Amino acid sequence: MKDGWNARWLRLYSHVGTHMDAQKHFDVGKHITCQKPLAPTLAESKEIHRTCVRAQKRFMVHENFRFQPWHRKIKELIQAGVLGDRLHTITQRMRTGDGYGPDAYLGRQPYFRTMPRLLMFETGIHFIDVLRFLGGEVSTVFAKMRTLNPVIAGEDAAIVLLDFASGAQGIIDGNRYNEANHPDPRYTFGTTVIEGSNGTLRLSLDGTLTLQPLGEQEREVKYAHARRGFAGDCVYSIQQHFLEAFQSGSPFETNGDDYLKSLAVLEACYDSAANKQIVKL
């Protein structure tokens, strides 16, 4: 931070290994919005949050997937009761196709090749947060992880089964090795199916959202989304949320307290995969 710069808040978009430096900005009176992953470990993430609380400063994690327009619309429809009074299952499937071959990730994010934790730490955390946003808090986790490309260090494929406190279940089926059947898999980053007691919502790779009430034909749900910015312009949307909440004093959706819950689920995924057992939260 430059000497004499009198900003009230800072955005940290540096490498995850530098985020512990956020604490010194709290100490000099700055509010922070920080890019994910928050820190290399859950313990370090908790320390950043404790420092924020002690300094009585505001803190938000830049977790933007829940701000994608399709996820906002799905949340709206769930809250409106279009799927009924019970959620059954939320299934998220991702295939980015950028992780196969000897030159995997070199064109965009070469540091991915040496990360000991890759798919769930870097990408899967987005979907953990989205599934919590849509389905509520997670009670148990079971995960299996694999490394399909031998030239990288970490996992590039995972299947995660989540039990929600509500009784619903969630499935994350992620794989960066294989390809999607769409020219821009990074628009929605996958397909999503949400099933409830009254029907099903389906999100396609092109952003199309459909509703199929039980016993009826599937029909398209119209909503605003555009190929502008990143993934439906979710970066703009989360920054707008930050500014509005900062000015009004209302809570950030992805504040430290909330985001640590997503990180606890992430850690449970790795514990489950390592020990081949269900992990309770």
CATH architecture of the largest domain: 2-Layer Sandwich
State mean pLDDT (0 to 100 scale): 89
Which CATH top level class of the largest domain fits?
Alpha Beta
Principal-axes shape call: globular
Radius of gyration: 19 Å
In whole angstroms, how far apart are the ends?
A: 38 Å
Overview of this structure, please?
The chain is of the alpha+beta class and 281 residues long. The protein folds into two domains: 1-62, Rossmann fold (3-Layer(aba) Sandwich), CATH 3.40.50; 65-224, Dihydrodipicolinate Reductase, domain 2 (2-Layer Sandwich), CATH 3.30.360. Helices cover 30% and strands 24% of the residues. The protein has six helices and twelve strands. The chain has helices at residues 22-27, 42-55, 69-79, 119-135, 234-248, 256-275, and strands at residues 9-12, 31-35, 59-62, 87-95, 138-146, 157-164, 169-175, 191-196, 199-203, 209-213, 219-221, 279-280. The strands form two sheets. Strands 11-10-9-8-4-7-6-5-12 form a nine-stranded mixed beta sheet. A three-stranded parallel beta sheet has the order 1-2-3. Strand 1 (9-12), helix 1 (22-27) and strand 2 form a beta-alpha-beta unit. Helix 2 (42-55) packs antiparallel against helix 6. The radius of gyration is 19 Å and the shape is globular. It starts with 8 loop residues before the first strand and ends with a strand. Pfam families: GFO_IDH_MocA_C3. Residues 71-201 form the GFO/IDH/MocA-like oxidoreductase domain. InterPro entries: Gfo/Idh/MocA_oxidoreduct (IPR051317), GFO_IDH_MocA-like_dom (IPR055170), NAD(P)-bd_dom_sf (IPR036291).
